[in-house]
C-alpha cells in the first residue's frame, strides 16, 4: 500500500502540507514498519528553478540513520517527470525549499516499505543506468552524455543554453542552423553559394539578428545579362567586418558602416565576400539581386 504526500505552492491554491510557500518545509516519510527500506515514486509536476543545478526552488530527499545522520538520495526541480528512488534506511526526510520568487504545481510522492535496497527501485531517466557504489554503499545513475541530475533527469545542454548561433535544442542535442556544425553548433562551415536564378535574396548570417564573429560568407552570381545588387538594409561593424564586391576582373567596392550603399551593376558575373573578424559584431546586411533579362548598361544606367 502506498502512502501519499502532495505539495503544491501555487498562489491561491491550498496545500495539504504547507501554508506558506517560502522558506523550508520538512516532511517525514516514515512507514509504520521498522523493517526494510522506503521506496518512493516521485512525480514532479513543476518545481521552478532557472538553473540546471536546482538553485531556486527544489526538493531534497534524504535517508536518515538512527544516529541522526543524513545521506542525500536526490535533489529535484524541473517539470513533468517521474522517478523511483529507495532509501538506505526505513526513515526518509523530504525537504522542500522555495525562495518566494516562483509559484508552481509542486510534486506528488507516494511511498511504501520494500525489502531490498537495489536498482530495481531506483530509476535512471534518458538512457541512464543504475549502479551500486561499493565505497559509499549507495545507488547512483551513470548518465548519458548531455544529461545530469541524480536520476539523469536534467537536460544539461538545453537547460544551460549551450547551443550557439541560434541553434535549436532537443534531447540534449543541438540542432544547428544552416552552415554551422559541431557539438554545440560552434563551428561555421564557410560555404560558397552560387546563384543563377533571379530575383534572389542574400543576407548576412542570422539577419535580422546580429551576425556572429569569425565567419566568411561568399556568393557567386551568374547571369547571361546584367546583374543588379540593390541593398535594402546595411549595418556592418567597420572595425572587424567588410563586404567586398567583385566583377569578373576587378574589385568593385569594399563596404562597411551603416550608410545604405548605392546600387551595383555587373555584366554576367558578380562575386560577394563577407568577412567578419573575431571582435564584436553588428547587425549585418540584406540585399536583393535581380537580373536584367536583356539589356546593357553604362555609368549605372540601363538601356533596353
TrEMBL record:
Keyword Transmembrane helix in record: no
Residue ranges annotated for the CUB domain, each copy included: 45-114, 185-292
Keywords (A to Z) from UniProt: Disulfide bond, EGF-like domain, Repeat
Disulfide bond sites: 124-141, 143-152
EGF-like domain boundaries: 115-153
Matches recorded under Pfam families: CUB (PF00431)
Domain of life: Eukaryota
Name of the protein described by the UniProt record: EGF-like domain-containing protein
Organism this protein belongs to: Soboliphyme baturini
Amino acid at each position: 500500500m502506498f502512502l501519499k504526500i502532495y505539495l503544491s505552492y501555487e498562489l491561491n491554491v491550498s496545500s495539504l502540507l504547507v501554508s506558506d510557500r517560502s522558506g523550508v518545509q520538512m516532511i517525514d516519510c516514515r512507514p509504520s514498519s521498522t523493517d526494510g527500506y522506503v521506496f518512493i515514486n516521485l512525480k514532479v509536476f513543476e518545481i521552478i528553478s532557472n538553473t540546471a543545478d536546482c538553485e531556486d526552488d527544489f526538493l531534497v530527499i534524504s535517508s536518515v540513520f538512527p544516529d541522526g545522520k543524513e545521506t542525500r538520495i536526490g535533489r529535484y526541480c524541473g517539470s513533468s517527470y517521474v522517478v523511483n528512488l529507495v532509501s538506505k534506511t526505513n526513515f526518509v526526510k523530504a525537504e522542500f525549499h522555495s525562495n518566494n520568487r516562483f509559484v508552481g504545481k509542486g510534486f506528488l510522492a507516494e511511498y511504501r516499505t520494500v525489502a531490498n535496497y537495489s536498482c530495481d527501485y531506483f530509476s535512471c531517466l534518458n538512457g541512464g543506468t543504475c549502479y551500486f557504489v561499493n565505497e559509499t554503499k549507495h545507488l547512483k545513475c551513470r548518465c548519458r552524455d548531455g544529461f545530469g541530475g541524480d536520476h539523469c533527469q536534467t537536460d544539461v545542454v538545453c537547460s544551460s543554453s549551450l547551443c550557439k548561433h541560434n541553434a535549436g535544442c532537443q534531447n540534449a542535442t543541438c540542432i544547428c542552423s544552416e552552415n554551422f556544425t559541431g557539438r554545440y553548433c560552434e563551428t561555421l562551415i564557410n560555404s560558397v553559394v552560387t546563384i543563377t536564378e533571379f530575383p534572389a535574396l542574400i543576407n548576412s548570417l542570422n539577419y535580422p539578428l546580429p551576425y556572429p564573429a569569425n565567419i566568411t560568407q561568399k556568393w557567386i552570381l551568374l547571369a547571361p545579362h546584367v546583374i543588379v545588387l540593390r541593398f535594402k538594409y546595411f549595418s556592418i561593424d567597420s572595425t572587424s567586418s567588410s563586404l567586398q564586391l567583385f566583377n569578373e576582373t576587378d574589385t568593385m567596392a569594399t563596404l562597411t558602416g551603416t550608410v545604405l550603399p548605392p546600387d551595383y551593376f555587373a555584366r554576367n558575373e558578380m562575386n560577394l565576400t563577407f568577412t567578419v573578424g573575431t571582435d564584436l559584431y553588428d547587425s549585418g546586411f540584406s540585399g536583393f539581386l535581380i537580373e536584367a533579362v536583356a539589356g546593357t548598361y553604362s555609368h549605372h544606367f540601363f538601356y533596353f
